[in-house]
Amino acid sequence: MKKIKVSPLIPSSIEVESKDKNSAKISIFPFETGYAITIAHPLKRLLLSSSVGCAPTAVKIEGVTHEFDYVRGMLEDVTEFILNLKNIRFKIKTDAKRVVVNYSFSGHREIKGVDLDNDEVEVVSGDLHLATINDDAVLNFSIVIEKGMGYVPSEEIRDLTEANYIPLDAYFMPVTKAVYDIENMLVEDNPNYEKLIFTIATDGQTEAEAVFREAVKTLYEQLSIFNKELAISTGIPMSATVAKNENDGELKKLLISVDDLNLSARSHNCLTRASVKYLGDLVLMNEKELAEVRNLGKKSLDEIKEKMEEMGYPVGTELPEELLGALKAKLAQLKDR
User: Fold this and answer.
1) How far apart are CA 129 and CA 144, in angstroms?
2) In 164-297, which ranges are continuous DSSP H helix?
3) Which of 187, 204, 203 is nearest to 195 (CA)?
């Protein structure tokens, strides 16, 4: 028997199948008819255009004044060297948004991407060829590597480049594949519900699951303006118009698993052994209780505090009474299972 609905069904399940860190198949379901593609298209666009990656943006080669020059003893001319360099994928090892790395090579050898690994950057396409030099060659060069989104042509980078550096077209996109399929599925004898399946691959700079989470976060942030505009246009405080929905959303956020917080293995294991399974468990702890978690050193404590602040719940956050009660009840229910 069909029912008359007053609101669409909200998807309740998500499954992640990862072959490795660089690829994942993510399924979200069930959606009402037509809702899956409504969500899928903007997410795909964000995955391909807004995922943050690293790329070389400028290069300085000793003895070279322009990109049509050559280096004595190097098989490739500078133009070919630059083309090879732009294909190499870097990953900055620190939180820095920009680093300058210096290299020096001499003697007969083939230089590959893996030879550019150092303490500041990791090369995730180590097999790619960069240059070949002969016995009496000396090749000294510096590369500017930056974090960014999308594609930025060298013309836009030129004004930001220091003297003697050659600006490069920057391909920041870490996502190499983002496709989705929509399948029908059965829910309570109704075969017209939908399952959204994303297949994502990256070049190795970032894990596939991580770029998907970032795309979802960006979509939320872009849509948040409508809540603000609704409050302004109606003259009714947003807290009055969406209080219940906010509490529901906040509760859902507080029930994010510790597994999904991208903590280091040491921090994660310490919390797991202390039966801290959800973000809400952390929010309910004060700084003293958190510091007393067994084997949790200062570095791990700082990492957890930073992550909580990033999630919007710095240590010591006081939740509204209604939300606090709902969180405690839900955590108790989950731990009784």
Assistant:
1) 19
2) 208-234, 238-254, 265-273, 279-283, 287-291
3) 187
The answer to whether residues 184 and 35 touch, using CB atoms and an 8 Å cutoff, is no
* Burial of 219 from C-beta contacts in 10 A (0-12 / 13-18 / 19+): middle
Give the whole-angstrom CA distance, residue 318 versus residue 276.
18
For residue 181, what pLDDT is reported? Answer: 97
Q: What SS3 class is residue 129? A: strand
Whole-angstrom Cα distance, residue 191 to residue 41? 23
pLDDT of residue 319: 85
What DSSP assignment string belongs to 55-68? EEEEEEETT--STT
Whole-angstrom distance, CA of residue 33 vs CA of residue 16: 22
Entry field: residues in the chain: 337
Question: Phi and psi for 263 in degrees, rounded to 5?
Answer: -85, 160
Degrees, nearest 5: CA angle 322-259-247: 15
CA distance 110 to 133: 7
Give the global pTM: 0.64
Would you tell me how many other CB atoms lie within 10 Å of the CB of residue 90?
26
**What is the mean pLDDT, run by run of 10 residues, along the chain of 337 residues?**
76 87 93 94 94 95 91 94 95 92 95 94 94 94 95 90 91 95 90 94 93 92 75 49 56 87 88 89 89 88 89 86 83 71
Domains and CATH numbers, the chain: 1-51+175-235 (3.30.1360.10), 53-171 (2.170.120.12), 239-337 (1.10.150.20)
Whether 262 and 210 have beta carbons less than 8 Å apart is answered as: yes
> What's at 8, amino acid-wise?
P
pLDDT confidence of residue 243: 45
How high is the pLDDT of residue 231? Answer: 55
| Residue 177 to residue 307: CA distance in whole angstroms | 29
